[in-house]
Amino acid sequence: MGFDKVSLDRPTCLILSTAAFCLLLTVVAVKASDAQADPQRQPEIINASIPQPAAEQQHPGQSMIKDQLTAIKARNADLAFSYLSDHMHENYDTAKEYLSEMRFEYRPIYNYESFEFLDSHTSGESLVQKVSFVDSYTKDEFTAIYRLVKSEDGHWKIDSFAVLEQDSSPI
Predict the structure, then answer these.
(1) Which has the closest alpha carbon to 115: 161, 163, 48, 164?
(2) Higher pLDDT, 98 or 57
(3) Is residue 81 packed enough to be buried (19+ CB in 10 Å), middle (13-18) or exposed (0-12)?
(4) Domain range enclosing 115
């Protein structure tokens, strides 16, 4: 008994991805409320101008997100694009198209001054990571939610992400 390969059009894939992502946001929100009960836990603050701890002190997914953000800051489209999963690659024709979307649709990430890793949740081969950004122009704070998956070679890759409005909640 096998599975037939199903080919879905782009709008259907986006709807299914959005539904899955909303489910993950709910899990993150529940985990975040659990984490608020622990006042000892401090988030890791990262400033682009301050030397960062060695990668081995960070979760491998956090290290990968940091590396991708460095590539975005350097406007290195090919390197930034390389951190995306195969699923995300299907959404863009070129690395330049991806970086252009980041510039116009995800400005707080594209123009970040600093960022800090917030709550995360690992489940099997996936990781959901909240990241707080400070926009370098407006100095406004934004929260992004990244969903990472392990690729076939065992490396973490970004499978989806969203930037929440300043006063929004995942639920």
Answers:
(1) 48
(2) 98
(3) buried
(4) 10-34+45-164
Residue with the bigger pLDDT between 99 and 14: it is 99
The CATH number that applies at residue 28 is: 3.10.450.50
List pLDDT tens digits, range 131-159.
Answer: 999 999 899 999 999 999 998 888 899 99
92 in any annotated domain: yes
Mean pLDDT is lowest, of 28-37, 88-97, 118-127, 158-167, for 28-37
Round the average pLDDT of the chain to a whole number and report it: 76
CB 150 within 8 A of CB 171: no
- Looking at the domain assignment, is residue 170 inside a domain? no
Domains contained in the chain, number: 1
Query: How many C-beta atoms surround the C-beta of residue 28 within 10 A?
Result: 22
Q: Going by C-beta distance under 8 Å and a sequence separation of 6 or more, which residues neighbour residue 44?
A: 58, 62, 116, 117
Q: Does 14 map to a domain? A: yes
Task: Give the amino acid at 102.
Answer: M
Give the pair of three-digit tokens for residue 3: 């599975």
